[in-house]
Amino acid sequence: MAKLSLFDRRRQRVRTALKARSGQNPRPRLSIHRSGQHIYAQVIDDAQGHTVAAASTLEKDVRGKIGCTKEAAAEVGKRIAAAATKAGVTKVVFDRGGFLFHGRVKALADAAREGGLEF
């Protein structure tokens, strides 16, 4: 069996902690993916198995003016919060995957909190 990378071990640890904390009333999950050029966010309802809301820097009005920065991540955080509240979701669990909570990931999380999401 191949040894897991640090990223994969961190991802497993985060996901296990989220499942343990959610208990009987699982909240929708705010899942983040960060690449070298873009950042993506989804609010996923695991109970029903579908995406409630999504936002990313691939959207034309975000991509054209900012690029791959903390400001772009903050804009995505505001957009995901607005889309989630429009869909009726206000409380989520933050699934950062294997990404460390700093830089663009932290900027997105802070903006989502300011936008009205609770986690």
From TrEMBL:
It holds the Pfam family Ribosomal_L18p. The gene is rplR. The keyword Ribonucleoprotein applies. HAMAP family: Ribosomal_uL18_B. This is Large ribosomal subunit protein uL18. One of its GO terms (biological process) is translation. It comes from Sphingobium algorifonticola. Belongs to the universal ribosomal protein uL18 family. GO terms for cellular component: cytosolic large ribosomal subunit. InterPro entries: Ribosomal_L18 (IPR057268), Ribosomal_uL18_bac-type (IPR004389), Ribosomal_uL18_bac/plant/anim (IPR005484). This is one of the proteins that bind and probably mediate the attachment of the 5S RNA into the large ribosomal subunit, where it forms part of the central protuberance. Part of the 50S ribosomal subunit; part of the 5S rRNA/L5/L18/L25 subcomplex. Contacts the 5S and 23S rRNAs. GO terms for molecular function: 5S rRNA binding; structural constituent of ribosome.
